[in-house]
């Protein structure tokens, strides 16, 4: 502990590193392109019928997010560093090989992240979402937020109370996972700005701009967290 009563910097976690494979740095750049291009293509359908479009796009989004996690991110409880090479003449072991467990970890992280949907829906209501109407739209938009922001955090941090205290207090070191989550929520919040404006546009209806802001913010936060701001912390003082 420091003299001010705050934990010393050494007590805090380090930013998440990508897996040391040839595919990880490639797919981590393909990933945001997949998200935004798919969202752009289905945007007219989203405006015309938000409920059906958000529902039908949940499964593809889950597949993309799980693929990103398994290919690029270290699963909770594992290290992104490659296993040590065996000495000449020694018997080769696979004690550090967790590749077979990663899909199961991703599936469990998916289930846990979906449990956050009611919480995210309640937060949206607190920030002005309709209470008695548009309930399916609010729940579906919360599901997209959960898959985008919460799922990768659960996959890499698991149930570590220390890590989640840092995340909730917005003092986790910035990396592409935490940066993407912050960008997603900030983007969703900013996405509410056009809704009350008297423009009479079809795309202003709930929750089109919220989801658009979430996807845009996610990609911006992921890129900034992976490169420009990596290792830094958000100082609220």
UniProtKB/TrEMBL annotation:
Membrane topology qualifier: Multi-pass membrane protein
Known pathway: Glycolipid biosynthesis; glycosylphosphatidylinositol-anchor biosynthesis
Locations listed in the record: Endoplasmic reticulum membrane
Taxonomic superkingdom: Eukaryota
InterPro entries to which the protein is assigned, alphabetical: GPI_biosynthesis_protein_Pig-F (IPR009580)
Region ranges (Disordered): 78-98
Principal subcellular localisation of the protein: endoplasmic reticulum
GO biological process assignments: GPI anchor biosynthetic process
Protein name (Swiss-Prot/TrEMBL): Glycosylphosphatidylinositol anchor biosynthesis protein 11
Organism name: Oidiodendron maius (strain Zn)
Native organism taxonomy: Eukaryota, Fungi, Dikarya, Ascomycota, Pezizomycotina
